């Protein structure tokens, strides 16, 4: 049994999925590569680590699984939450974090990604990479001899979605105290995405349907979710007996929503498109009035992976009691910590 932190309180929960931690793939490129049980096991582990730290005074992992090991943090893009979460997590596990920004190394510039992967992985025990194109993270994983964890690429953001799932577990675990497992808490919850078709929603679709969520995805007609992502999500939804639907009208998408999620409309590298994008996303701002008109549930909660811009969500929602954005941000640490603890203390590949 473990006492799990839920919004500052605790609840006793059985760790149902711990055995699945032993079956994880070597790398974490996308949660599409993980089963529902493996995803839930990582979230349970994160909740357990959070509980032991915040409620029982555990300031470092007692086994120090990364003692004597170095983890390379390859960051082609700047970051706040990801960098703080990853460096503090490695210290918690007894390891050494080596931060390598785009000014520090020649990642795919004067040296190929293949060569960089082979060289860097020969000297470290794990790689946590925040990159641009999806093929950069897959190339690193292909040619690295140590585990590679995707800290962000233009198609995926697995550690963010793990943090989202931990946050949902904390909030709705309190509301569903009779649920016997994390899957029981998640099953039937309706998540409405209102925003761009980007790496966050792709990763949500890679993980949430298989974990029992009904999904409502709303993007402007000019920004559709790619067909390959739709097919993957619909296959998972069919197997899990849940639904995934797509909309262009935000008010239709949020009907009966338990959770409304959005993200930036102008990602890093899209600054030149800002004026056009703001026009294209007119009417997509998440507000209390929009949610009420659309028929979201009375106790719906709001999520955003940050940083946030006012055009995406009103202050009235963002700073309200229904917003869990800062709890969600903190949970980046606990889920990254769980991923490191599960994946990195492994021997190198031959």
TrEMBL record:
Family: Belongs to the aspartate/ornithine carbamoyltransferase superfamily. OTCase family.
Residues in Aspartate/ornithine carbamoyltransferase carbamoyl-P binding domain copies: 26-170
Domain of life: Eukaryota
Metabolic or biological pathway: Amino-acid biosynthesis; L-arginine biosynthesis; L-arginine from L-ornithine and carbamoyl phosphate: step 1/3
Enzyme class: transferase
One example of a Gene Ontology biological process annotation: citrulline biosynthetic process
Recorded GO CC terms: mitochondrion
Keywords, sorted A to Z: Amino-acid biosynthesis, Arginine biosynthesis, Transferase
Domain Aspartate/ornithine carbamoyltransferase Asp/Orn-binding: 188-342
UniProt GO MF annotations: amino acid binding; ornithine carbamoyltransferase activity
InterPro entries: Asp/Orn_carbamoyltranf_P-bd, Asp/Orn_carbamoylTrfase, Asp/Orn_carbamoylTrfase_sf, Asp_carbamoyltransf_Asp/Orn-bd, Orn/put_carbamltrans
Name of this protein: ornithine carbamoyltransferase
The EC number(s) this enzyme carries: 2.1.3.3
């Amino acid at each position: 049994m473990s006492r799990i932190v839920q919004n500052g309180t605790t609840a006793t929960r059985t760790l149902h999925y711990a055995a699945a931690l032993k079956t994880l793939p070597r790398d974490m490129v996308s949660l599409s590569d993980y089963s529902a049980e493996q995803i839930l096991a990582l979230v349970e582990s994160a909740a357990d680590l959070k509980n032991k730290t915040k409620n029982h005074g555990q300031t470092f992992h007692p086994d120090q699984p990364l003692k004597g090991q170095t983890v390379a943090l390859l960051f082609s893009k700047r970051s706040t939450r990801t960098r703080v979460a990853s460096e503090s997590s490695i210290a918690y596990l007894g390891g050494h974090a080596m931060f390598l920004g785009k000014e520090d190394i020649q990642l795919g510039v004067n040296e190929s990604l293949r060569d960089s992967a082979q060289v860097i992985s020969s000297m470290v025990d794990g790689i946590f990479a925040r990159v641009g194109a999806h093929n950069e993270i897959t190339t690193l994983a292909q040619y690295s001899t140590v585990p590679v964890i995707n800290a962000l690429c233009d198609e995926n953001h697995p550690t963010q979605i793990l943090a989202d799932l931990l946050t949902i577990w904390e909030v709705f675990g309190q509301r569903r105290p009779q649920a016997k497992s994390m899957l029981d808490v998640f099953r039937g919850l309706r998540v409405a995405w209102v925003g761009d078709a980007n790496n966050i929603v792709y990763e949500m679709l890679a993980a949430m349907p298989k974990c029992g969520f009904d999904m409502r995805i709303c993007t402007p007609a000019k920004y559709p979710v790619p067909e390959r992502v739709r097919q993957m999500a619909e296959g998972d939804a069919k197997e899990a007996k849940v639904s995934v639907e797509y909309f262009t009208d935000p008010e239709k998408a949020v009907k009966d929503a338990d959770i409304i999620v959005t993200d930036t409309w102008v990602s890093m590298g899209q600054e030149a498109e800002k004026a056009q994008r703001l026009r294209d996303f007119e009417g997509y701002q998440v507000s209390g009035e929009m949610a009420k008109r659309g028929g979201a549930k009375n106790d719906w909660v709001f999520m955003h992976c940050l940083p946030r811009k006012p055009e995406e969500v009103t202050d009235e929602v963002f700073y309200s009691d229904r917003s869990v954005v800062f709890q969600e941000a903190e949970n980046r640490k606990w889920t990254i910590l769980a991923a490191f603890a599960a994946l990195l203390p492994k021997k190198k590949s031959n």
